[in-house]
Amino acid sequence: MERVKVLERVLVYDRIIRFNIDLLTGIKSEIKADIEETRIMGEALLDEGDLKAVKDFLLKVEETFLLKLGEVLDSIYDEYEVFNFDITFLSSIPEEVGREIERLDLIETINAKLELLKDILYEACCLPEPNKKVEVVLTPFKVYCELLNHAIEFNKKFENI
């Protein structure tokens, strides 16, 4: 692989990893506020049965999604450190850098983690019975599902650089 192509891949992968870290860090900070806001809206707008559905949903988000989100963030940080170390260590051998980038398969690894987060959140959003009022209150979480979808698609665009 020629040096310019290797440099291009290194720069793209570096930006992709940082973009995903920033995205997930932003979701993590915003979702905590959305949980509290949703709880307040649910209590103000919904009857007891619908409120229970919202509280069950929020419990799933807090216990499952946020926990997994922290794990995914830690994992991507670790991948970034390995990536940076490998690039620094192998910088004098461009063909090795290219092979190492292929070996790490960072975009596929990150997308698999984003897919997992999206699936957890989507599953939590699926109500046993359709309920328009509850669905409206849960709208911010549907936006996060779409945001994760867009991030996955964005990452795929750069997979074959």
Protein described:
The protein is mostly helical. It contains six helices and no strands. α1 (3-45) packs antiparallel against α2 (48-90).
Give a concise summary.
The chain has 161 residues and is mostly helical.
What is the residue-averaged pLDDT? 88
Radius of gyration: 19 Å
Output the number of helix runs.
Answer: 6
User: Largest beta sheet, briefly?
Assistant: none
Task: Compute the separation of the termini in Å.
Answer: 12 Å
Uncertain segments are none
Beta-sheet strand percentage? under 5%
Secondary structure: elements and pairs:
Layout: H1 3-45, H2 48-90, H3 94-104, H4 106-125, H5 132-137, H6 139-157
For this entry, give a set of tags.
elongated, single chain, 161 residues, mainly alpha
